[in-house]
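input
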Amino acid sequence: MSVLRKEYDIGAIYSRHVDTVYRVCLSYVKTKADTEDCVSDTFMKLIKAAPQFDSQEHEKHWLIRVAINTCKDSLKKTTALPYEELESLAAPDTTQNREIMDAVRSLPEDCRSVVYLYFYEGYTLDEVAKIVKLSKSTVRRNLEKAKGLLREILEEGAYL
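output
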């Protein structure tokens, strides 16, 4: 069993990354209550694993990967639930932004995570590939697939 980190270390990591972990979880599980559960579970896994990080970016990558896996596990345990309105991730609250976020949330899981990491978090293709543990070409293919799907969805709603 691993040794727990000092409380202030966990608190500092939590402060640095809780918003990102929350947004990742919200993009997967959709409801505020489930999101909060997944965020808590993610940070509990951090405490239990007590990994050593090379940098704050390494921390962030690790937490995103664990958050995604935690959400996937959560979704396997439950049936599809109606979701609450997604809080704006990076832009002011407008009807168009809500429509775009709804469109992103409707993407298949393999596309949704790469879109979020690439467009909202600003990671490069190489970084996204590392985080989601896929090849760069698969990430690129998933992004292209997502763009096409988003274009179709948004054209139907007359937002493009």
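quick obs: Helices lie at 7-29, 32-49, 56-77, 95-105, 109-120, 125-132, 136-156.
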